[in-house]
Fold this protein.
Amino acid sequence: MTAAIVLAAVQTSRATIPDVITFAVAAAVILVGALGVVTSANPVHSALSLVLTLFGVAVLFIEQDAQFLAVVQVIVYAGAIVVLFLFVIMYLGVDRRENIEAEPLRGQRPLAFVLVAIALVGILAMLAAAHWVTGAHAVAGSTTAGGKSNVYLLGKAVFTTYLFAFEATAALLVVAIVGAVMLARRPTNELEDEELESAAGDDESGSGADAGGLPRHGDSDGVDDVPSDAAANAPAHGEARS
Amino acid sequence: MPGLAMLGSLVHPLFAQGDPLFDNGVGWFVWVVVVIKVLVAFAVLLVSVLLMIWFERKVISDMQSRIGPNRAGPWGLLQTMADGIKLFFKEDLLPDRADSVVFKLAPYLSLVPALLIFTVVPVGGVITISGHTFELQVADPPIGILLVLAMSAIAVYGVMLAGWSSGSKYPLLGSVRASAQMISYEAAMGMSVVTVVLIAGTLSTRGIIEAQSHTFFTSWNLIRTGVVPFVLFLIAITAELQRPPFDLAEADTELVGGFHTEYASIRFALFFLAEFMNTITMSAIVVTLFFGGPDGPIPHIPSATIWMPIIWFLAKVMVFLFIYVWFRAALPRLRYDQLMTIGWKYLIPLSLAWLLIVAGFLVDGWWGGGIAVAAVALSTLLVRAFSIGKERDSESSNVPVLGSRVAPPGLHALGTSSAVPPEDERSGHDEGKS
């Protein structure tokens, strides 16, 4: 059935055989990656599958003559955002196998099936109604209209027609960053108090090596505590790094 | 395939942009040329890595009054080859706690971006064979220089995953350091590239070297962007490559070997290969962006227009390779907080300000001058604000500074002699952990 759809698309649209082959391979890569994201038990493998999906989408962008979007996709999403995900996974030490059976929200499983069914029906309906999902070139105006390069056209659109939206997005991002810094940054007084109160167990920072020979923070009542404290803390520390 | 797109761009400048997949078909001749170009680029890169490793060892030996490799082959030239063969035949180890798939994948994630970056480097001029014209570079996509940024962004994965998948702590620390470092310096690197792109008016690497080829030296981007972006770019890529003095990721004295501690045999060789290949390709990128690529005076000898640009290109790249070795011999490794301070507090603001100034001067002199004055005023204000803030901080609290070892306040009260536990207690702690 898929082959029939593809062939019909070739006949009815501007897509050619190389277009369709590229689309099919990229689509397969995207699907494999997407399935990997949701089925991997290990969060790091999920993140890597996400990178695979992003690459597949970048290939589709190139196939649609949108080279700039493709390369920005790789730089921003694959190069920065997923790296950030991996950072968080590694730092927080959640890089262990998850129990997929656990259900944090009640009723989320049936709800997921319903939503997926709705989405699937929508996509199939669109597939039946249109032929623009099989590698035919841009449907809403050419990406290289008037012999200008894609970068030129995109730049012109962003800095003239869509200038306000572009600047508003930039402002939004700045606000988000400032907000994140404000939320993440605790007042210094509070930090000191906590440092005094907390026992030596506070070691989530992930740097296992510098815990070696240093006196622990917060042993305010004297050095006598250090050996016992260290011994008590050692096994827990070993586990955290596994 | 970007190689095809590049060839199309010669037939018609915009052909490549309108038809990246060559739906209208390509001749067998174009196919042959593309295959030859890819193979030649691959072989040249591998051989140049062999020579680069030998060159680095020889030069650094000279700078340290040693002899260096001198047994295998004339002047020790075959030493790298011998090392490579040895690594190839060593036992391939897979650590017990390693994540085997990712562990095996990581070296390739390092190597492939290193190879791909070189595809957009123009190594020479344009040649004509039986009616067909070819640029001496593997590919000339319209987004050329962005491919370099994308690939250096992907290279982070190799290092990061290698460290994580080893399942041991020194590689993890090394890889966290390395990836934080690479991400931090990417911003400054990108901003310097944007300055060059502003001046050249194109993203294509071929376009960038053509924009610099009017007169020798004065038309190079080094002069036209005002030297500062070049300095920033050189520092940023040194950090990106993790070459000394930014080699914290593999700081042997602290982290055994960093992210590749657990690697052996051919996989270790792949990391090594990628590292040196990156050094070569990044030197080539510096030459392309700031030194006119293959641009240089050509003597009036028959066929000199073909080989003379290649010689100019190689000569310029050699200078940078030597500079990298020189860095390694001359500069001590930075501390981690110094590294981050340089990256975030100096390189990024400076590159941003310089980008705005260059953009202003492209409009006209008044805009440029105005932005320059505003930038200086703003940075003075910021520096003053920071110094006031720092004074206030040091008066009111003793918040631990990143990288400094602050003893708990309680221990200060007891006197400095008791701040560090006795030696036997510390060793006991270590045993308990392992």
Observations:
- The two ends of chain B are 51 Å apart (CA to CA).
- The first strand of chain B starts at residue 126 and ends at 129.
- The longest helix of chain B spans residues 28-63.
